[in-house]
Each structure stands twice: as structure tokens, then as C-alpha cells.
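Q: what sequence does this backbone want?
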């Protein structure tokens, strides 16, 4: 029998995924075809071409922050991808993270979001103790916005601080100068373990020839000042001189191939098994209407190996699902909001997507159990928040919610967040939102991230605006209120879109739901390089 609702959901999801790929295709072009051609005419590969040559073919990859800067900096012509490409992949089967400046975007200049994206790449490297490779091709700080990228704690300078800290932690860092490397940025390759430079195109200097002339009156060209010959034969700043981009990338592969094995965290992995239920059926299972209820286990069973999910406390706290499973062979503890209306043993009806006292308590205990057994945690968000009203408040919902947040915050096992639907307010926090250090956080195209739902927020904001007008003695007609409400809601709804979140790096990526297993698997593979050294200690938990 044909399920019309399923087919409608499936068609809409396919449209959303197709739209996602269309946007990514445009982003991947960076500064556009003309800029790419100019790049090629100089004998240079683009950032993405370099990464493609560097990483193992036919091995999984995960891009981080592709949407960084999306629809931002319009007054400066935009900054596609934040002007830098960041990809987790493999070189000779060893997992690495690659950071490549995109010189087709404003000559690789650093916008504020560029700095944020670079720091996120370093954060992933530090948390997981995986090697990082920098492919440098940048004109330095974007001067019109220098005050937003240069002096603060999480600005440009933090990158060099991280270089030093990462070196002390024993995390391998390799830098290849494949274009300009100027001013403060010149320290990055030299603070890495090893530095390569490409003949004719690669240059490193604290100040270019024009600035040298202006500052001290010396006449010198950029190549003599800081080219490959200078730094490989006179200054000793760089370690390898390469004829072209291809040779440079092959040399990096040779260096990485010699890396020794590192100690592992020891997370459990068996032979991967595909889900029994068709993964592609997720498209039709998830309702397009974000308010509609659905059985969340139908999603879980299409994501986990053999569709096998061992549910924890199945009859208690039913508005959240907790349980053990495997994803691509890796053992995981899954926490997911149940989106159908559930009935308690006492006959009370609990709304789907809402966290109640019992479900918060259950989740806290499950998180503790996973820490006890060294099992990574996967959070699947479709949450509208905690239950409100006198009944919940009197039952201590704040205390129970705090219990869940405490256990999750102090968790020492790696956490991964997948925002599949709503992720509102304190629900986002409890389900390990960005503020709570998930190793990776990604969103499906259906995600909505905000302090509350659009309708509720718009009505609150409308009340504030109408109240302000009335305080000034102005009358507001019903028609005017409706116009104001529509305008407020449209603006608010735009801010809840996954693209808005991804542009600001609140999530690492927007993914096709069918990539979820790959993302989690690659994330745990990375986390497995970093043994757990900290003891799980949740501190004071009120019971």
C-alpha cells in the first residue's frame, strides 16, 4: 500500500538535499571561475585540488565549515567558505586534518570567520590528537576588518599560540608554503614541525618589498627577500624546496607515511554491518512539518548496525530514548528525543520532543553509565525544550535538567551531536549543543536552531514592540500588528535555518542524512587517537 505522507516527506527531503548540494557546488568554486583560471595560469593548483592530490583517494572525507561566512560580508563581496578549506581525511591510512587557504577568495586574506574556522580546525586536532597539515597561500589579515581578527584572545594570534601548545603535546604539524605567507602569518610554517616551500610561487616574509622600501628604504624584490632559494639555502627557515605544487604534496605524503603509531583510546569496534532497515527510508520517515509527531526509533534503526538498538529504561522517561548500538562497527550510546506523544504508567500524556523530569533523570544516569564503560555518546536532537508550567516547576524540572546538563558537561568520553530537527533553548544545551564541546556537531537540512520556536518568539517580540509604541502614545492597529508579526517571524525564521548556524560555525557542517553514519564513524576514529586521561567526575548533582 502506498504511503502518501511518506512519499511527500521523501520528495521534500530530496529537494532539500539537492538544494544543499547546489549551494555547496557554488561554495566549492571559491572566488569563481575567473579567479581559478588566473590561479592555474600561474602554475598553481586551487586549495581543493591540492587537498584532492594530498589525501588518499577512495577513503572517507569530512569537510568542516564549508558554509563558513555564507551570506556574510556582502559589503566586501562575500567570503565563500571563509576563504579556507578544512577537511578531515586520510594519508596512507593515517587520519589527518588539512587546512588550505583559498587564494581565489580575496587572495586568501583572513576575515574574522577565517580565523574562527582555523581555530576550529586546530581544536579538532588538539581534542583528537590527530596530525594537522597547513597549505599556506594567504595575503594576511583582511585590513578593512583588522580590528575583528587581529588582537583578541580568539583572533589570529591564537593560532600561533596553538602551534606551540600542539607541538608540546606531540601532535605532528606540517606546513607547506604554496603562495604568499606574510607578516604574522609567516610564523605559522616555522612553528610547525616541518616546513616546505614551492619554487617561484612560495614566499615568506614579515614584510613585503613595498613595505620594506617604505620602512627602511631598501630596494629588493619579493623572491630575493623571501623566496624558496633564500629560505632553503640562506636563512634555513624552510626544510624542503619543491619544484611545484604536485611535488610538494607528494613530499608531504612521504613524510606522513613515516609517522609511527600512536596510543589509542581503545573504543570498541567490530566488523561494520549495514542497517537491516533501508537507510534511505529516513527521507520519508522524518516529517517535513517540524511540529508533526513521529516514532524516533524509526530513525535510529535506520542509522545503526543491523538496526539493533538495546534500549535503556524503555518504560521510564519515555520522552527521551537512550540505548546502546553500533554505528559502522563502533560501540555508541545514543540519546535521542522521542517525537511521538507518550503515555506514562500513571496515565499522563507527555508531548514529543519535550524533556520532562523523568527523561532528564534517565539521560543523566545513561550518560554516567557510558562514561563508566568508555562508550562514546551520540546525541540526536529534535527537541523543543524542557517542560514548563507549575506542575513541572514544583516537581523540580530545573534540578533534574541541571542533573542532565552536569553529567553531559563533565563527560570524558567523546560526544557527537546530530541536529536532525528542532534544537531549541535549554534543550539544545542538554542535548550537547555547540557550547558543550561535541567533537563534531552537524545538522541535517531539516534542522532549526534557536532559543525558541519561530511562532512563540515572534509573538513575544511583537508584544515588546507594540508595548514600546503604546508607551510613546502611539496606536497600533490590528493590520499593522499582523504586518509587524510577519516581518518579525520572517527575520527570526531565517536565523533558525541551518545555513545561518553553519555560516557562523555553530555547526561544523550541514549534511545529507545518509552521511550520518560516516560522520559519526570518522569522528570516533579520530577520537580513538586520544586516550582518555581525565577521570569522570560530575561534581555536585542534586538528586
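A:
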Amino acid at each position: 500500500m502506498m504511503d502518501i505522507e511518506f512519499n511527500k516527506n521523501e520528495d521534500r527531503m530530496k529537494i532539500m538535499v539537492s538544494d544543499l548540494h547546489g549551494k555547496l557546488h557554488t561554495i566549492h568554486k571559491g572566488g569563481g571561475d575567473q579567479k581559478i583560471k588566473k590561479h592555474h595560469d600561474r602554475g598553481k593548483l586551487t586549495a581543493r585540488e591540492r587537498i584532492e592530490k594530498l589525501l588518499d583517494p577512495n577513503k572517507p572525507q569530512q569537510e568542516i565549515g564549508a558554509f563558513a561566512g555564507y551570506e556574510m560580508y556582502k559589503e566586501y563581496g562575500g567570503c565563500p567558505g571563509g576563504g579556507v578549506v578544512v577537511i578531515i581525511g586520510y594519508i596512507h591510512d593515517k587520519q589527518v586534518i588539512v587546512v588550505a587557504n583559498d587564494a581565489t577568495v580575496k587572495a586568501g586574506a583572513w576575515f574574522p570567520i577565517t580565523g574562527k574556522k582555523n581555530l576550529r580546525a586546530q581544536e579538532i586536532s588538539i581534542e583528537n590528537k590527530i596530525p594537522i597539515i597547513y597549505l599556506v597561500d594567504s595575503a594576511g589579515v583582511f585590513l578593512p576588518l583588522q580590528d575583528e581578527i587581529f588582537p583578541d584572545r580568539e583572533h589570529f594570534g591564537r593560532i600561533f599560540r596553538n602551534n606551540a601548545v600542539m607541538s608540546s603535546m606531540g601532535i605532528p604539524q606540517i606546513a607547506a608554503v604554496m603562495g604568499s605567507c606574510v607578516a604574522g602569518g609567516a610564523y605559522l610554517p616555522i612553528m610547525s614541525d616541518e616546513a616546505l616551500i614551492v619554487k617561484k610561487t612560495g614566499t615568506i616574509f614579515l614584510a613585503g618589498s613595498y613595505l620594506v622600501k617604505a620602512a627602511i628604504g631598501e630596494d629588493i624584490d619579493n623572491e630575493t627577500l623571501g623566496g624558496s632559494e633564500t629560505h632553503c639555502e640562506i636563512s634555513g627557515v624552510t626544510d624542503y624546496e619543491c619544484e611545484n605544487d604536485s611535488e610538494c604534496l607528494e613530499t608531504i605524503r612521504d613524510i606522513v607515511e613515516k609517522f609511527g603509531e600512536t596510543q589509542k583510546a581503545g573504543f570498541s569496534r567490530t566488523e561494520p554491518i549495514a542497517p537491516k532497515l533501508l537507510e534511505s527510508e529516513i527521507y520519508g520517515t522524518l516529517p517535513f512539518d517540524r511540529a508533526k509527531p513521529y516514532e524516533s526509533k524509526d530513525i535510529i534503526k535506520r542509522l545503526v548496525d543491523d538496526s539493533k538498538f538495546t534500549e535503556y529504561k524503555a518504560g521510564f522517561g519515555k520522552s527521551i530514548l537512550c540505548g546502546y548500538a553500533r554505528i559502522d562497527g563502533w560501540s555508541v550510546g545514543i540519546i535521542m528525543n522521542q517525537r511521538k506523544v507518550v503515555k506514562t504508567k500513571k496515565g499522563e500524556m507527555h508531548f514529543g520532543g519535550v524533556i520532562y523530569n523523568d527523561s532528564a533523570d534517565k539521560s543523566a544516569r545513561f550518560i554516567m553509565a557510558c562514561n563508566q564503560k568508555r562508550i562514546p555518546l551520540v546525541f540526536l536532537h529534535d527537541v523543543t525544550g524542557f517542560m514548563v508550567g507549575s506542575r513541572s516547576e514544583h516537581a523540580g524540572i530545573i534540578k533534574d535538567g541541571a542533573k542532565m546538563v552536569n553529567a553531559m558537561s563533565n563527560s570524558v568520553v567523546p560526544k557527537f551531536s546530530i541536529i536532525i530537527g528542532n534544537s531549541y533553548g535549554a534543550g539544545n544545551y542538554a542535548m550537547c549543543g555547540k557550547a558543550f564541546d561535541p567533537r563534531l556537531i552537524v545538522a541535517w537540512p531539516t534542522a532549526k536552531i534557536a532559543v525558541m520556536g519561530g511562532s512563540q518568539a515572534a509573538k513575544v517580540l511583537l508584544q515588546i514592540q507594540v508595548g514600546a509604541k503604546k508607551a510613546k502614545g502611539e496606536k497600533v492597529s490590528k493590520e499593522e500588528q499582523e504586518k509587524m508579526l510577519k516581518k518579525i517571524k520572517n527575520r527570526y525564521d531565517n536565523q533558525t535555518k541551518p545555513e545561518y548556524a553553519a555560516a557562523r560555525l555553530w555547526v561544523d557542517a550541514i549534511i545529507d542524512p545518509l552521511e550520518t553514519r560516516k560522520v559519526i564513524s570518522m569522528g570516533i576514529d579520530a577520537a580513538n587517537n586520544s586516550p582518555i586521561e581525565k577521570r569522570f567526575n560530575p561534581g555536585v548533582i542534586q538528586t
